[in-house]
Give the backbone structure.
Amino acid sequence: MEIRTVGVVGAGVMGRGVSQALAQTGHSVILLDVSQDILEHAKDEIRENVRLQSLFGKRDATQTPEEVLGRILFCTAGQQLTDVDFVVENVTERWEIKKEVYAQLDAVCPERCVFAANTSAIPITRIASLTNREPQVIGLHFMNPVPLKPVVEMIRGDQTSDETVRLAKRLLAQMGKEAIIVGDGPGFVSNRVLMLAINEAIQVVYEGLAGAEDVDRIFKTCFAHRMGPLETADLIGLDTVLNSLRILHDSFGDSKYRPCPLLEEMVNAGKYGRKSGQGFYTYPMQDPRQTNREG
């Protein structure tokens, strides 16, 4: 099957990144979210990100922001997805929201359409069970910032077909990305390991063993990590980290995944990291419309 049009559900940080990466590689994109206000902010962010790529000589920098945006339809109506070939879902990591979204997608999208869940921790087999097309559901865990990351964690659910895997790999190849295929399970490989490490780094700060800067500096200087675990948590979004840890804790019943009290306190205080302007570090404030929307 030829992939002509890709639907992207959710215009938060990840949805914007996926839409930009698709549009920059020549795909027609339909970006869907619940309000025009959110979509206008997404348009502004994509325009600025493409402009910055051009300034810094990044890949696909020969395209103007308007050329990239010209391949994206920004809409709030799910009926716009009636003729898409592939959907990438990026909504928040809450099961009750996932259930509602997939019921709507299954009813609106054509039978041929493949659903790719860009989820942090929820098993793909569980998500597929919400649809009438389980063989056509796969996990594509993109990393942030999407346009600059060359590898995607691909998760094959229990019912995911070989054809769906081939189609998803073809789409990623068209985007200039490589797939690493892993088995299904809560958190998959990346977040099953990463969230545990981030949670323990937060626990170290909570216990007063070291400050956030020193924790991150150890990992950057001793282990040559480009970012420390707390900088990474701020980039992901502390609310997303908390939701992922809760899923892992509920799924495995293992106390090692119990969220650190400091993480819960920060999220309750509205400190989500980069997207809110305050986390373990302070950042220029992003648009408040995007606060606490990521999955």
Notes: The two ends are 29 Å apart (CA to CA). The chain has eleven helices and eight strands. Confidence is low (pLDDT under 50) at residues 288-295. The CA atoms of residues 39 and 197 lie 34 Å apart.
